[in-house]
Structures are given as C-alpha cells and as structure tokens.
Write a structure and sequence with these properties.
Elements lengths: L19 E5 L8 E5 L4 E3 L9 E7 L5 E9 L2 E9 L8 E3 L10 E3 L5 E4 L2 E4 L6 E3 L7 E7 L5 E7 L5 E7 L10 E2 L11 E2 L9 E2 L1
Antiparallel strand pairs: 1-2, 2-3, 4-5, 5-6, 6-7, 8-9, 9-10, 10-11, 12-13, 13-14, 14-15, 16-17
C-alpha cells in the first residue's frame, strides 16, 4: 500500500528460434557487411574480403552453425568461397578450394551444416580445402543442387547433351563422398520445361 507498481508482459518462445542474417551497406561498396540477430544479440560477423574484392552473396546452414560467403576478384574476374564457423566466432575464416576461373551459380549448406554444395561440387565443412564433383562418373553439367532435410541426399538438375534436363539424386556422406546417382524423372527435352522446388524438405517437388 502506498508503493508504486507496474505491470509488464513477458512473452516466452518455446523451442529453437533461427537467427536472422542480413546485409548492411550498399552492394559493391567496402561498407557491405553481414550481421546476425538472434533476438538477444545483434552482431557483425567478421568476413575478411581480399583487397580489391567485393562481397557478393552468402548462405547459412539451417542449424545456424555455418556461414559461407562469396567474394569476387577484380582481375582476373573469378569467385572465391569462404567458410565461417558461427558457433565459435574466434575460429578463423577458411577458404573453400575452388577450380581456376570459378564462378558461383549455386550455393547451399546442408541443414546439419556438415556439407557445402556449390555450382557442380560438394565439400565437407570439416575439410573445405577438399571438394569433388557432384557427378564424378560422367562429364555432365549440374545445375541447382539442393539438400534433402536428412542432409545425406542431394538433388540436382542434370543438363543433357543437346539441352534436355532431368532431375537426379545422389547420396553424400558427412565427409563429402558422393555415391552413384539415381535418375528421379524422365528426360525432358528443350522447351518441355523441368524445374525443382528449392523449398523441398524431405522429397523434391518437380515442376513440368
């Protein structure tokens, strides 16, 4: 009695909340940054960029443990990939091995953060200096790799000779070893159309 009091509202979020990752600064400027907001803290993530290069894009694993980002070299023009551990921010950024003249057409981390798919290759985040072709068994072009929710299957579009496409699936171990591919759809020729839904969870959605 006679004292002051206040009423406050407390909201409790049950379960895990995924952090929010976003850019600050204009594209193609040295001020370009990547930040992480986990609803308790908001921090800038250290992302070294070689002198004269620019930050292009990034991807994160669904479990929030890894971030991979792309930089573009000025001359000769090419892309480089860099892997950042988000659990221990004191861990140095590691460059992912890429072929000469490399350009990123696809970039995705597996949901468990143990694998990285980029363009037509796959690597383990434990050994990013070693990668292998998604289809090492035949000289084919690979497009749009996407991990299944179990992180051990990789779906992708295979570009056939003459321009047709088909969707394939391969098993991938935690160390990045690729198994024999399985064809998931019939062959579709040019102008027939074929796509894969990037939001697939446990099985892909095919678009004709």
């Amino acid at each position: 009695p006679g004292g002051e009091f206040a009423v406050a509202r407390l909201d409790v979020v049950m379960g895990a909340v995924r952090p929010l990752f976003y850019y600050t600064g204009d594209f193609d400027t040295p001020e370009r940054r990547i930040r992480r907001h986990d609803f308790l803290t908001n921090v800038e993530l250290d992302r070294p960029v070689p002198a004269g290069s620019r930050l292009e894009r990034f991807a994160t694993s669904a479990n929030g443990e890894w971030l991979v980002y792309v930089t573009q070299e000025p001359a000769p023009i090419r892309h480089r990939l860099w892997l950042r551990n988000l659990v221990d921010l004191s861990t140095p950024v590691v460059e992912v091995a890429t072929p000469a003249g490399f350009f990123t057409s696809a970039l995705e981390l597996s949901p468990d953060g143990m694998l990285l798919a980029f363009t037509d290759r796959v690597a383990s985040t434990a050994t990013p200096t070693v990668s292998q072709l998604i289809e090492p068994f035949a000289p084919v072009s690979v497009e749009r790799p996407h991990f299944a929710s179990n992180s051990r299957q990789l779906y992708y579009v295979e570009l056939m000779s003459g321009g047709g496409r088909r969707i394939m699936r391969t098993d991938v171990t935690a160390s990045g070893a690729v198994g024999a591919p399985t064809q998931m759809t019939p062959d579709y020729m040019v102008a027939e159309g074929l796509g894969i839904d990037p939001e697939e969870v446990s099985s892909p959605t095919f678009t004709l």
